TrEMBL record:
Substrates-to-products reaction catalysed: Release of an N-terminal amino acid, Xaa-|-Yaa- from a peptide, amide or arylamide. Xaa is preferably Ala, but may be most amino acids including Pro (slow action). When a terminal hydrophobic residue is followed by a prolyl residue, the two may be released as an intact Xaa-Pro dipeptide
Domain Peptidase M1 alanyl aminopeptidase C-terminal: residue ranges: 544-861
Listed GO MF terms: alanyl aminopeptidase activity
Keyword annotations: Aminopeptidase, Hydrolase, Metal-binding, Metalloprotease, Protease, Zinc
Organism annotation: Alkalimonas mucilaginosa
Required cofactor names: Zn(2+)
Domain Peptidase M1 membrane alanine aminopeptidase, first and last residues per copy: 230-444
Protein name, as recorded: Aminopeptidase N
Family statement drawn from the similarity comment of this UniProt entry: Belongs to the peptidase M1 family.
Record-linked Pfam families: DUF3458, DUF3458_C, Peptidase_M1, Peptidase_M1_N
Keyword Transmembrane among UniProt keywords: no
Domain Aminopeptidase N-like N-terminal: residue ranges: 77-191
Length: 862
């Protein structure tokens, strides 16, 4: 990976210029071979800017063989070609270029562009991977009609796939086969896809609401077909849901999904031909947990929903990424909410914001949902763009209501179908359809940072009036010093004895008041219900008040949220008092009630019974007290397990008969039972039989994995032997084995270093496979805070050495893994020194990728 200073350029949104040329049609021919693939691109150009005399095409890691201008072969003196571009002077308004290039898919370990792994060819073009396939205008605002011809060995690659409809399929001389595809919808090149390989095919049909029949086809590894059936059903549910809720119908005659083992992220929404990480397609009760099932359904939905929000209406430039991602995450979250426990879904989405997204805002990589400048676009597929982006859409939904929001969606799609547009176009459509002034709201797109919303209460006894003074303030971020007030939709509920009043208060200014009249002195306002704005709420509620909400609020989210605030109070008290601190009796009473009489929503009950994890606790501190958090969490779990052992056991037993399948009731029962098991496992002596019994009689992977997690968490001696058993049972199934890698990497003892070293030599481990690398090292850096943050620096060094090795292989995956090192300023001075030293080692490495360079240099500059 050579990275000269030229390619370290920062691109700015402010510099956007419309394309000088368009490509009306793109006709590609691939002659596939793993070591040498020939690509012939026939591109029909049209000049858009009469003053533009030079055409500059993007291209990387390509061997240029020939260029024809119309029918004439160009001499090398007639164009310039360097490591980034092919440039030539053009005078005609309409012309054709035929470009022949050679690429080497099997050497492509970055998994961007066309690559060959595990016996198949596969592409990944978003964000800027198409330029590794041929010279092109690799930008999302150039929409072209694509045809693709694939020629390959007929035996080795029985399936030759690309976007759109298949229009030719024939055998050629020499055992080759030719297949041709045409995609009728103009699209940017980032949505192009090609897959060639030998798969097992699962097919079905879907009839759209207007009566069109769509062929559904899932291509998965041979022998794995049954594991694709859940995903196939999830696709049909997504298609139905999008018709019913958004009125959006699928547009092509076929919808294909290919599951591959080598993939940089979760999945990709290529037009008509989604490519998925096999982890998000292949599930069965035996091999996948309830969380895996949930993720499959949600990602299948997400990629399907992109067909309208992303593909039919696409982004003008990559600074607009949230236009498609924020909106599509909002849509997939709404879909998941309708498919399972709405409250728990919301809780999980909020946890992502409060941990990962707030952390990103506080880091050197802070950026608004519409970033203003970027070096490596792949670094901006972030929780900010995706998840905070979805919260911004959710706020619009809250402000406009479901009907208003859907009216805005209809106008957006009607106005911009077939176009490449900006976030501004989306907000404008919402505004116009509702006659609602959103000018102040637009600030959410440009301003980074986590707003703090401070609430003060004052009660006037004579007037029986409660006044809430609300003040908002967004602290400066690494990228932006000055912040302005934002529009905050604040959903509230006032709990006052029997009476309860709820509503929406739209805050616009830095300081505003909210007054409740005719209320008693003990009236309690619950603010920011359902997390109606992505802010940090600062209040002065007492433990008693919070517990009142946790016990009595009608809204499940409010109950959970009040408990979260309690945990933060208890953590602070633990830090002040040390081991002498005891959790209050009132918590045990509340927990006993929940264990004896779980709520109808058992998943929610399980959430309420949970001590927040390390990441959640950590995020509430400007400087993270690693050791105190770990000590406090362990003490809290122990106290709960000691005080409530009987109720825990009883609840465990009552919920141990869940049906094996994935449905809301069974998922809830398992979640509750396994929450109990987690506490029970702390009594090593009493729980051994329980753990072993559940492990050996488990009806599915959720229950099995829960035993391993509980025994790891509790450092139970049974952990080692069960892990051994697990490895023997699952050594042939890499997706299951990834869970085993991750459990090992989360081992909280120093032993973890030897274990990880040994696992890197495991026959199934590969530095080329992102799933394997993440299973081991993401788990170590994110789920093993005790060992990762060791004061001797061993944890930081393990990650650093890993990144030095990984960066030349796969910079995108390396740049994701570096995240925990970027926030060095959040730790004590000893750890700061160690982390900065690690960052310098990375920066000093010759030929460090742009991906890693952008993040590490920002971290060291701060
Ligand atoms: N659009 C893709 C992500 C592409 C990431 C490129 N580094 C998946 C998704 O969000 O649906
Ligand atoms: Zn997406």
């Amino acid at each position: 990976m050579s990275a000269d200073t030229n390619s370290r350029q920062v691109k700015r949104l402010a510099d956007y210029q419309a394309p000088d040329f368009f490509i009306e049609t793109t006709d590609l021919t691939f002659e596939l071979a793993a070591d040498k693939t020939l690509v012939t691109a026939v591109l029909q150009f049209r000049r858009a800017n009469p003053n533009a005399l030079e055409l500059r095409l993007d291209g990387q890691q390509l061997l240029l063989l020939a260029v024809h201008y119309n029918e004439r072969l160009l001499q090398p003196s007639e164009y310039q070609c360097d490591a980034q571009q092919l440039r030539l002077s053009v005078t005609d308004d309409d012309f054709k270029l035929t470009i022949k290039t050679e690429i080497c898919p099997q050497a492509n370990t970055a998994l961007e562009g066309l690559y060959f792994a595990n016996g198949s060819f596969c592409t990944q073009c978003e964000a800027e991977g198409f330029r590794r396939i041929t010279y092109y205008l690799d930008r999302p605002d150039v929409l072209s009609v694509f045809s693709t011809t694939i020629i390959a060995d007929a035996n080795q690659y029985p399936y030759l796939l690309s976007n759109g409809n298949k229009v030719a399929d024939r055998l050629l001389a020499g055992g080759q086969r030719l297949v041709r595809w045409q995609d009728p919808f103009p699209k940017p090149c980032y949505l192009f896809a090609l897959v060639a390989g030998d798969f097992e095919l699962r097919q079905d049909q879907y009839t759209t609401k207007s009566g069109r029949v769509v062929e559904l086809a899932f291509y998965v590894e041979k022998g794995q077909g049954n594991k694709a059936l859940f995903a196939l059903e999830a696709l049909k549910r997504s298609m139905r849901w999008d018709e019913e809720r958004f009125g959006l119908e699928y547009d092509l005659d076929t919808y294909m999904v290919v599951a591959v083992d080598f993939f940089n992220m979760g999945a990709m929404e290529n037009k008509g031909l989604n490519v998925f990480n096999s982890k998000y397609v292949l599930v069965s009760n035996n091999t996948a947990t309830d969380t895996d099932f949930f993720n499959v359904e949600s990602i299948i939905g997400h990629e399907y929903f992109h067909n309208w929000t992303g593909n039919r209406v696409t982004c003008r430039d990559w600074f607009q990424l949230s236009l498609k991602e924020g909106l599509t995450v909002f849509r997939d979250q709404e879909f998941s909410r309708d498919m399972g426990s709405a409250t728990v879904n919301r809780i999980h989405a909020v946890q992502v914001i409060r941990t990962a997204q707030f952390a990103e805002d506080a880091s050197p990589m802070a950026h608004p949902i519409q970033p203003q400048q970027v070096m490596e676009m792949n670094n901006f597929y972030t929780v900010t763009v995706y998840d905070k982006g979805a919260e911004v859409i959710r706020m619009l939904h809250t402000l406009l209501g479901e009907d208003g929001f859907q009216a805005g969606m209809r106008l957006y799609v009607q106005r911009h179908d077939g176009q490449a547009v900006t976030c501004e176009h989306f907000v404008q459509a919402m505004q116009d359809a509702n006659h609602y002034d959103l000018s102040a709201f637009r600030r959410w797109y440009q301003q980074s940072g986590t707003p703090e919303l401070r609430v003060q209460r004052s009660y006037d006894v004579h007037k029986q009036q409660l006044t809430l003074t609300l003040r908002q303030h967004t602290p400066a971020t690494a990228d932006q010093a000055t912040k302005l007030p934002l529009v905050l939709p604040i959903r509230y509920q006032l709990v006052d004895g029997e009476r309860s009043e709820s509503g929406l208060f739209v805050m616009q200014l830095q300081e505003e008041s909210l007054v409740f009249t005719d209320v008693s002195a003990t009236a309690l306002p619950v603010l920011l219900e359902d997390f109606s704005a992505p802010v940090r709420l600062l209040h002065d509620y007492s433990e008693q008040e919070l517990l009142r909400i946790a016990k009595a609020a009608s809204n499940g989210f409010a109950r959970w949220d009040a408990l979260q605030s309690c945990w933060m109070l208890w953590l602070q008290q633990y830090i002040q008092q040390g081991g002498a601190f005891h959790l209050p009796e009132a918590l045990f009473e509340l927990y006993a009630t929940l264990l004896n009489q779980p709520l109808p929503d058992k998943s929610l009950t399980a959430e309420l019974l949970k001590v927040p994890d390390y990441g959640t606790f950590a995020e509430s501190f400007p400087q993270i007290p690693v050791d105190s958090i770990l000590a406090a969490s362990a003490a809290f779990r122990l106290q709960i397990s000691e005080h409530l052992s009987k109720a825990l056991l009883q609840c465990y037993q009552q919920h141990s008969q869940a049906a094996a399948e994935y449905n809301e009731e069974a998922v809830g029962q398992r979640a509750l039972k396994n929450r109990c098991l987690d506490y029970l496992s702390m009594h090593h002596g009493d729980s051994q039989t329980l753990l072993e019994q559940q492990y050996h009689t488990a009806s599915g992977m959720t229950d099995k994995l829960a035993v391993l997690k509980a025994s790891l968490h509790s450092e139970h001696p049974v952990f080692e032997s069960l892990m051994q058993h697990f490895a023997n049972e699952w050594q042939q199934d890499v997706l299951v084995l990834d869970k085993w890698f991750s459990l090992h990497a989360a081992n909280p003892t120093e032993q973890v270093f030897d274990t990880i070293a040994a696992l890197c030599q495991h026959p199934k481990f590969s530095w080329q496979n992102p799933n394997r690398v993440r299973a081991l090292f993401h788990a170590f850096a994110m789920q093993n805070p005790g060992q990762f943050h060791r004061l001797d620096g061993r944890g930081y060094q393990l990650l650093t050495q890993t990144l030095l090795l990984l960066d030349p292989i796969n910079p995108q995956v390396a740049a994701r893994l570096v995240t925990p090192l970027l926030s060095w300023h959040r730790y004590d001075s000893e750890r700061q020194i160690l982390i900065k030293q690690a960052l310098r080692q990375l920066l000093e490495k010759d030929g460090i990728s742009n991906d890693l360079y952008e993040k590490v240099s920002k971290a060291l500059a701060g």
